[in-house]
Automatic annotation (TrEMBL):
Coiled coil: none annotated. This is Phosphoenolpyruvate carboxykinase [GTP]. GO terms for molecular function: GTP binding; manganese ion binding; phosphoenolpyruvate carboxykinase (GTP) activity. Mn(2+) binds at K222, H242, D289. Belongs to the phosphoenolpyruvate carboxykinase [GTP] family. Catalyzes the conversion of oxaloacetate (OAA) to phosphoenolpyruvate (PEP), the rate-limiting step in the metabolic pathway that produces glucose from lactate and other precursors derived from the citric acid cycle. Its main location: cytoplasm. The keyword Metal-binding applies. Pathway: Carbohydrate biosynthesis; gluconeogenesis. Monomer. Gene3D superfamilies: 3.90.228.20, Phosphoenolpyruvate Carboxykinase, domain 1, Phosphoenolpyruvate Carboxykinase, domain 2.
Length: 613
């Protein structure tokens, strides 16, 4: 197939316009086949950009440059016509100005390269909740990753027909090859000040330049499925959320679906793939990162996972923390910025064992003596794998993927979880009184800043708020986003809307030890939540919401210390909450100005009143 086979005049015109600007040597329409994947991967191996792994079938390791290892938030723009519509938490540039700057960069940027046309679908093909996109990119790495992360190829063009809607996504690594120059095994990208990850919300358009990495370049993920989709969702009355989706089955075989939003480094992927310690319970995965939710005719919210793969953080993934992810990434997987062992396997910090052999190649391609343990070195610059090293693995390879994970109708959501890393104040679990109170809980999500998560010592101990864990991924004003959540609650009734819970796996005692074991034992909390959704009398009404009755959380098999901790983990820390209210009132809510829904201020006042009774 060539561009001449494209039967969609608007799509064809857009491709031609981009090609004219970027001036690639070739244009290639991706069919999404295995043969195409193998051919492009071979091209990367031949160019010295990918290393085949002897120990993992059909799997490859890529190394990016130190200047291109993560999303670049300060180079990510919501370029709405009005600055106010981007809101206080997004970077904004006037769209006319931004487009002029980027057109200058795009001019001739694909010299010496191929422009790949990737038709892709976010969500199961044919689902009424799914949406289509077209990414144009000059990176083979992007084509390969998009192939795992989304449904790509000719079948999507068929779906589009002659006038179907699509989100146009233009991407270039920003490294033209002039005069026969070659990449020579060096990851192509542009300098930081020339990187632009731009979103034009009114046009539903994405322009990305200068980075080949992750969410900067795989435009279906954060750019489309969250930033642009959040705008579409608001316009069309649905929800695009930074949430995992899991399927929970109780010992009687009853099923409920749960979504959950957690800021980074809270174990979201681990929770999505959890292996319960509670006998008879089962967790299966529908999605690990993004949920699109729409109302069904019955007034309930139905969720799909718009993605088809996992782009997971490798370091910290072990048999203990997430065995299922390791199995998912045991074949047909792309690894980025991991260590490479002598016997041809990948390795990372906290993988659960020390690397095989005497020497290991670190993520920058340097040979190093094998470390004696898998512990994180004190000095992060000494890591073998980059702390943001990734695996890109097909979701279908996950041993606990739910058999119905691709149901085009989506799965009915019973509960929504919010959580953060909070060593104090926030109890193990509490339930909101109603939808609006749940929106309030989502709006105050955050993690305590630790020495490891900041370079600014003065910030340590403060709360970094990340409402709904969506701050870096919301395509419009966050105050309006809160309002959208309130409005969603008005479209149905409390009995049909999901119940909302705030969980905290990270409480610490006065000696700094975790009070709750976490990981697989979080199934104990999920079980309580499951029963709450059935209206079981397993709760007490407290000033902050509904909390587990004594012994309502099953602690059989936990150690005595944890059992002793249960009382503190399930009680209201009145003084802590009063401080929390002060911080929200003085530092958090004022940021949203007149865009803050009055319902949320009312919840804050109500909480304060209940606590002082
Ligand atoms: O790089 S991604 O944006 O895909 C993942 C992340 O940073 O959260
Ligand atoms: Mn994410």
């Amino acid at each position: 197939m060539t561009i001449n086979d494209i039967k969609h005049p608007k799509l064809k015109a857009w491709i031609e316009e981009c090609a004219k600007m970027c001036e690639p040597d070739d244009i290639y329409l991706c069919d999404g086949s295995k043969a195409e994947y193998d051919r492009l991967m071979k091209k990367c191996v031949d160019a010295g950009l990918a290393t085949p792994l002897a120990k993992k079938p059909n799997s490859f390791l890529f190394r990016s440059l130190p200047s291109d290892v993560a999303r670049v938030e300060n180079r990510t723009f919501i370029s709405s016509v009005k600055e106010e519509d981007a809101g206080p938490t997004n970077h904004w540039i006037d769209p006319k100005e931004l487009k002029a700057t980027m057109r200058g960069l795009y001019k001739g940027c694909m010299h010496g390269r191929t422009m790949y046309i990737i038709p892709f679908c976010m969500g199961p093909l044919g689902s009424p909740i799914s949406k289509n996109g077209i990414e144009l990119t000059d990176s083979e790495y992007v084509v390969l990753n998009m192939d795992i992360m989304t449904r790509t190829g000719t079948k999507v063009l068929d779906l589009l027909g002659t006038d179907g809607e699509f989100v146009p996504c233009l991407h270039s690594v920003g490294k033209p090859l002039n005069n026969g120059e070659k990449d020579n095994g060096i990851w192509p990208c542009a300098d930081l000040e020339h990187k632009y990850i731009s979103h034009f919300p009114e046009e539903h358009l994405i322009w990305s330049y200068g980075s080949g990495y992750g969410g900067n370049a795989l435009l279906g993920k954060k750019c489309f499925a969250l930033r642009i989709a959040s705008v579409l969702a608001r316009e069309e009355g649905w929800m695009a959320e930074h949430m995992l989706i899991l399927k929970l089955t109780n010992p009687e075989g009853k099923v409920k679906y749960v979504t959950g939003a957690f800021p980074s480094a809270c174990g979201k992927t681990n929770l999505a793939m959890l292996i319960p310690t509670l006998p008879g319970w089962k967790v299966e995965t529908v999605g690990d990162d993004i949920a699109w939710m729409k109302f069904g005719k019955d007034g309930r919210l139905y969720a799909i996972n718009p993605e088809a793969g996992f782009f997971g953080v490798a370091p910290g993934t072990s048999e203990h923390s997430n065995k299922n992810a390791l199995v998912a990434a045991s074949k047909n997987t792309i690894f980025t910025n991991c260590g490479l062992t002598e016997d041809g396997d990948v390795w990372w910090e906290e993988i659960g064992y020390k690397p095989q052999g005497k020497e290991i190649v670190d993520w920058q391609g340097k040979k190093r003596p094998c470390p004696e343990t898998d512990k994180n070195p004190k000095d992060k610059s000494q890591c073998i794998a980059h702390p943001n090293a990734r695996f890109t693995a097909p979701a279908s390879q996950c041993p606990c993927i739910a058999p119905n994970w691709e149901d085009p109708e989506g799965v009915p959501i019973s509960a929504i979880l919010f959580g953060g890393r909070r060593p104090s104040t926030i109890p193990l679990v509490h339930q909101s009184r109603n939808w609006n109170h749940g929106v309030f809980l989502g709006s105050i999500v955050g993690s305590e800043i630790t020495a490891a998560s900041t370079i600014n010592a003065a910030e340590v101990g403060k709360i970094r708020r990340d409402p709904f864990a969506i701050i870096p991924f919301c395509g419009y004003n966050m105050g309006d986003y809160f309002q959208h959540w309130i409005n969603i609650g008005k479209k149905s009734t409390e009995d049909k809307l999901p119940k909302i819970f705030y969980v905290n796996w990270f409480r610490k005692d006065s000696d700094g030890n975790f009070m709750w074991p976490g990981y697989s034992d979080n199934s104990r909390v999920l079980a309580w939540i499951f029963d709450r959704c059935d209206g079981k009398d397993n709760y007490v009404d407290t000033p902050i919401g509904f909390m587990p009755k004594e012994n309502a959380i099953n602690t059989d098999g936990l150690d005595d210390k944890t059992k002793k901790n249960m009382k503190e983990l399930s009680s209201v820390d009145v003084e802590g909450w009063k401080k929390e209210i002060k911080d929200i009132r003085e530092n958090h809510y004022p940021k949203f100005g007149k865009h803050l829904p009055k319902e949320l201020s009312a919840c804050l006042d109500d909480l304060e009143k209940r606590l002082s009774k």
